[in-house]
Amino acid sequence: MTMEERLAAIAPRLRRQLDRLYGAQGDTDSLWAATQTLLRERHAERPAALRALDAARLDDAEWFVRPDMLGYSTYVDRYAGTVAGLAGRVDHLESLGVRYLHLLALLKAREGDSDGGFAVSDYLAVEPRLGTIDEVEALTARLREARISLCVDLALNHTADDHLWAKAAKAGDPFYRDFYIVLDAAEARAREAALPQVFPATAPGNFTLVPEMGGHVWTTFYPFQWDLNWRNPSVFLAILDVALRLANRGVEAFRLDSIAFLWKQPGSDCRNLPETHYIVRALRAALDIAAPATLLKAEAIVPTAFVPPYFGRDEGEGFEPECHLVYNNSLMVAGWVALAEQSAALPAAIVAASGGLPRGANWLSYARCHDDIGWGSVLGDLRAIDPAPEKRLAAAAHFLEGADGGWGRGAPFQSDGAVLHGSNGTMASLAGLESACDAEEREAAYRRIALLNALTIASGGLATTYMGDELGLLNDYGYRDDPGRAHEGRWLHRPEMDWAALDGAAARRIGGDLRALRAARVASGGAGAPALIETGAPALLGVACGRDRVFLNFGAASVALTSAGRDRLTGATCDTAPGWGVVWLEGAR
Ligand code: OTU
C-alpha cells in the first residue's frame, strides 16, 4: 500500500478526530489541508530503510505482541555516559534478549532542573552532553540490526519554559502565546479547586504566575513545565510535525508522557477527557498514514478503569485505535501491594481487569520504572476487596518503606503523613536486598525480585526491565547531597549503572532468574492479554501464559498446587510453590 492509498483509507478516521476537536471553532478545511500537506512532506523525506520497515510492519501488525518481546528502559547518561557510549553497550541488551529500548531524558532539556529530562526545550535535538541527533539516528540503525526498536519520550502535555515556543510567547508573539494557557488570578483560583496535584509537596498548585505572560500559566507539573494548549490546532500540527521528524530519524515508538492531562475543561479534573482520546486517535491515524512502523505507548498513571480506553474504542464509527501499548501501571502497583501483604487478591483483580485487548495491542508490563510507585491508581480495585482500602494501601506502602519490621527500604514520595501518594526505591531495595543481613534474607529478597519479574513476564505484556534492576542495584542516596536533585526523591532509584557489578553474585542470580523466566515465556508461546487462573489459595496467583500455567506465591509459606507438572524453570516435577516462589508448569492448559 502506498502512502496515498493509506491516506485515502485512513482520512475519514483522522478527519473525524479533527472535527471533534476543532469543529466547534469553525470549519476544519484549512486544518485538514495543512495536515495532509504535513503528512505528504514528512513522508517524502522518510528514508528508504524506514519505508521498508513500514512495509514489513504492515504485513505483520502483531509483531510486538510476541513471547520474545521484552523491553529495557534506561537513562542514557546513567547507563553509558553518551549516545555513542550506549551504542557500545548494546551487547548487554542483546544478552538479556531485549527487543525494545526506551531511552529516558534523551531530548534537549531545559538548563538546570528539568524534571529528569521531562522539561524539553527542543524536541528535535538531543541533550548536548549526550551527543547529537545524527548519533541517535546511527544508533537506531545499529539497534535495528539487533532487532531492537527505539522508544523515546514524547512529552506532549508540556514544554520547558525555555522552549523556543515559550520564549516567543514570553516575548509577546501572539501565535506562540496561544500555545500555552494563561489565566487571570481569579480564573486560576477557580480552576485549581477542581484539579488534583501531581507533585503536592515539591510543586503545589497547577498554575504559575509569569509576569511576561501577564498572568498565571497552566503548569500541572513543575512551574517550569508549561502545559500546551491543545485547544489550539497549531499545537496539534506542531507536535505531529515533531513526531514525524523523529520517526524519520529512526525512532520506532513514542512514549506519550502524561497523556491523561492533555485537554482542559472547566469544572472537570482535566484528566482522561474524551478530547484527550481524540488527540491520541488523531496522532495514531496520522502516523498510520505517514510512518506506519511507529508504535504509540500511553503513559496514563490513572485509576485502573480509565486505562483501557487508551487502546482505542468503537464509538459507533468502527474501532478507532489509540495506542499500541499501554503501561499496566495498576498491575505493577498490585504486585508490590501483594508482596507487602502476602496476598494475591489485588493482582488477581487487576489481571482479571486486564483482558480483552483489541488486536494489535498489548500491555507494557513492568515492576519498576524511573518514577515512584503511585499508590492511588488501585484504590478503586481495592475497595471491591476491602471496605477500608485507604488504610490497607497505606499499610502496604509503609511496610515497603520499612515500617512494622518490613524488609523494604523504600522512601515516601510527595506523601505528607495524612496523604498517601507514592513510594520511591529500586526494585532490589524495595524487595529486601538492601536490608538483608544474611544468606537466608538475601535468598528471600532474590525470590521476591524473581516473583515480581515473573508477574510482568507471565502476564503476557511487553515486559520491560528498568535499568540496573537486572543487577540488583540498591538505592542511590547520593542525590540528597546534590543541591540540584535533593528536592526530588525519585533520584533514589536512578542510580548509575554499575558495570563492575555485572559479574557479582546479585547480578548472576537476579539476571539468571530473569533470563530463565524470559526463556520460559518464549517456550510457552504466551503473549498478549493475561488470563487469570483461580487457585483458591489466598497468597497464590495463577496466570495462564501460552500453553502453560504459572503460579506465583506472594506469601512466605509454601502452598500446595492442585496438580503437579513439569516446572520449566527447574526442569523438575513440582507440586508445591515455595514461599515467594514461582512455578511455571509446562503444557498444563
Ligand atoms: C510522567 O509521570 C513522567 O514519567 C515523570 O517522570 C514526569 O515527572 C512527569 O510525567 C512530567 O513529565 O503524571 O500520568 O511520579 O507518575 O508525574 C503520568 C509521578 C504522570 C508520575 C507522574 C507521571
How would you portray this structure in words?
This protein has 589 residues and is α/β, with parallel strands linked by helices. The protein folds into 4 domains: 1-155 and 233-325, TIM Barrel (Alpha-Beta Barrel); 164-226, Alpha-Beta Complex (Oligo-1,6-glucosidase, domain 2), CATH 3.90.400; 328-521, Alpha-Beta Barrel (TIM Barrel); 531-585, Golgi alpha-mannosidase II (Immunoglobulin-like, Sandwich), CATH 2.60.40.1180. Helix content is 36%, strand content 19%. It has 19 helices and 26 strands. The protein has an 8-stranded parallel beta barrel with strand order 1-2-5-11-12-15-16-20. Strands 21-22-23-26 form a 4-stranded antiparallel β-sheet. A 3-stranded antiparallel β-sheet has the order 7-9-8. Helix 13 (329-341) runs antiparallel to helix 18 (439-458) and helix 18 (439-458) packs parallel to helix 19 (505-524). The longest helix is centred in the N-terminal third of the chain and has 20 residues, at 3-22. The radius of gyration is 23 Å and the shape is globular. It starts with a helix and ends with a strand. The protein binds 3-O-alpha-D-glucopyranosyl-D-fructose. The site of 3-O-alpha-D-glucopyranosyl-D-fructose has 17 residues, from loops.
Tags for this model:
four-stranded antiparallel β-sheet, TIM Barrel, GH13_cat_dom, GH, Alpha-amylase, 19 helices, Oligo-1,6-glucosidase, domain 2, O16G_dom_2, 26 strands, single chain
